[in-house]
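Allow me, if you will, to draw on your knowledge of protein folds for a short while. Thank you for your consideration; the sequence and its tokens are set out here:
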Amino acid sequence: MRWSDERAAQAYDAGLWIRGTLADALRLAARDTPERVVLVDGDVELDCRELYRRSAALATALGDRMPTASVVSFMLPNWHEAAVVYLGATLAGMVVNPILPSLRDHELRFILDDADSRMVFVPSQFRGFDYAAMLTRVTATLQCPPEVVVVRGDSREHTSFDDLLTDSQPAPVVELDPDAVRMIMYTSGTTGRPKGVLHSHNSIHALITQIRRHWSIEPGDKFLVPSPIAHIGGSIYAFECPLLARSTAVLMERWDADEAVGLLVAQRCTHMAGATPFLEQILAAAERAGTDLPDLKVFICGGASVPPSLIRRATEYFARALVTRVYGSTEVPVTTVGSPHDADRAADTDGAPGIAQVALTGDDSATEGEIVARGAQMLVGYLHAEDEIGAFDADGYYRTGDLGRWDGDCLVVTGRAKDIIIRNGENISPKEVEDILVGHPDIAEIAVVGLPDPRTGEHACAVVVPAHGTPGPAVADLRRFLGARGVATFKVPEQVAIWEALPRNDAGKVLKHHIRATLTNEGG
């Protein structure tokens, strides 16, 4: 059982859950601070009054078209219109469903059908891709297709976004249950078909309360948001924090490190969160620009393997920023809040739990085990009951599938339970080896994967993106490098593959299943 009346009462008593909703927060913001800017999108700035006006107009249109609690999807870049969709759907009592713009026909068809979406918002075109045409193809194959709304550009046979915002009447007042499902966000599906993760007003409210406490967020702070808004991280910084933490979101529709540094400086941004590549590239771009980003207070790094050396370099370079690793998932967002006030632990660990309860399970849990977590910010459940089979233990903890160990009160994620390489009966943690080898002067990026081996069961292959101007290391080079750092011989990769880039998803996570499949098909 995931929840109990006792744990729910505790969440309310702690103020993590409240009786209000994000819709209430939007109305209050429009009334109390109408001119406070909440969103910056290029030349467009939306204050609380205008954001509410547009969201209310959309809520009226949604209420005219579909029953309360219908699913409203959007497949948009980091544009301000996405916030209007998110909040308009919230005001109307709908369930919002963010979808990554990088997905295509196959994935989109599955999500729209699986979620039973009644309306989907897409760009006409973005990055040279015709979304309106894709939606024409996809909806033609669905038994109950959603209404397609096109944002920015020729809507063709679909509905125009601007046409939905013509109603100037106040949004209908819908009685909202703060514990009811208000968002469906699909997982990446790296271990199977995508699963719909369900969150409520209160699970997200608990999350924002936690990060406000631990990441020094104060009214007037600004988040640079380059992470996709269809991921849990991007969505909370763009849509939730501006209202629940009284911050401002500065949106980036596409990632460019030099442009990001320019925005951080010009907008005087105080916070940023992103995966390892974001931090690596921001640091390099800041060095090129000759700025130590004096306004940046906090950089949160997670979503992929984070080398300790990168955290230390960024901490030393940035003038006042607290840079820390964190750990979480769509199911239990921000499971740990990092160690922003301890530079060594911020680099060497993934931080201490915030409001989540975290434990390790398994035969070796005294030293290492599977990470399980529960807390007020965890998912309500999955869209389909069958997806919950085996996902939770008897005490309501979510089984992450990640391995970890404790370093005092801080968690260290050591790898995936399915990512362990078993060579001659010995367990090898790829992440441990990667964290060391990323310091090799000839290596820019690295992923270590296990490949089938008739002699040893599996062997380790290091897939390397070489440092600029180098051919990349050979196996002997890795052996010497690891040996000099006291690494056991059995952990040394027995194969090196030189690639131009590592495959990643939109959150920056390396797609090791793609790497394994490619190398296996090539004969190892």
Remarks:
- The chain has a mean pLDDT of 92.
